[in-house]
């Protein structure tokens, strides 16, 4: 018999065994089904069929317990809370296996399968895992160097069990139990559930016309190996500009780029570098949804477990406002996603804080349009004392140095129009241009070896923003290039093509036609990217 405790006392008291109360042992509802708890939740609580929710002593305010109770309330499940020893909860799950024993064993085996999938993805250095459950099959893909590669196929039943295991048994932060017919978000943050190469995994699911799609974003824990931005692909000019932004005590610096363009990694290195240079005497506070990469020396806070997008936006904005009252020197905001969070970020930069954040925009100057679209006033956005840095970045594939081929030796590799564009854009540097080779053991027959940043960094002054406010964005860009030494995304990509680091075809997929603005780009073709030349 397993004793229970009453909520009335501070120390768990012995209670009548379940059989004595109800004429039979109650079933454990939190082990499977609609009320199944995550692995972390099951360590701390147990929901029984007789209406009792058992909570381990001292864990009443634990975030996992509060999240589970909120879920029950949302599902209109009434329960009576009782505080018990943590050993009682463990014993209930162990003794209550009964008829579910086979299912539990299968669940455990599927967890092993899930971990092996993550290990394999890490070995392949995949950035994402896609699992597509269809009516008759399950397809698994890895995104490697931005290409989606199919790596396996199984039955649809296998996929359903795998998704339920990944979401229900391995996640530490989720909005509810796994529901294949709903869009859901979660994350795996417990290090004992992850390969050593990973810091965390972000999960998103969505129902499809044939079944369910789950995408796992892998967050590698080697982002902080160095604080130097140049190994990521930033030029010497960019590194100097970013250093200047780091050294300014106030102002908002905004990084734009599509999903998966390396914005979080850039932020991680920028803030880690600032902390190191200050001897960890800065108070760096982050507001993220969720925390992605560890920043040694920073205080990182997460906004999670919101019941809806509106609630998430409200909590995120409230977290930014709260951060300003916690005496920070620097605030990092994971993303400005709506008017409320953008206003809070702008307010922080106007009240004596340095702010780093991200936003989705097509270029550095387009960040201004995005902020206006979010509802911020032009006179605040176009103020060089408030918005101090506009950064845009993308990722392009780097050619394998062992098997790449000079374009001059194989001109037929490119279509005639592209070949003409490359000749026009690269001029005298054409002989150095290379294209992807056939692949070799060094690059696992891919022809590419990693990815590199192409970026543009605008450090605006009063004249630049005067032109922006007057609607003369073209003149503002010309002023930035000629007077402030600016380098566009296209010009940076062209420099990498001219140095033989990037295939012209791969560059055009990211930045568009290389011949566009070629005359302006000529002055950048003598840039030697010694970082990658080897």
From TrEMBL:
Keyword Nucleotide-binding applies: yes
Residues covered by region (Disordered): 1-33
N-terminal signal peptide: none
Occurrences of domain Bacterial type II secretion system protein E (ranges): 324-338
PROSITE patterns membership: T2SP_E
Keywords recorded for this protein, A-Z: ATP-binding, Nucleotide-binding
The keyword Nucleotide-binding appears for this protein: yes
Pfam short name (any one): T2SSE
Biased composition (Low complexity): 12-26
InterPro entries hit by this protein: P-loop_NTPase, T2SS/T4SS_dom
Top-level division of the source organism's lineage: Bacteria
Family to which this protein belongs: Belongs to the GSP E family.
Name of the featured protein: Secretion system protein E
Species in which this protein is naturally found: Massilia rubra
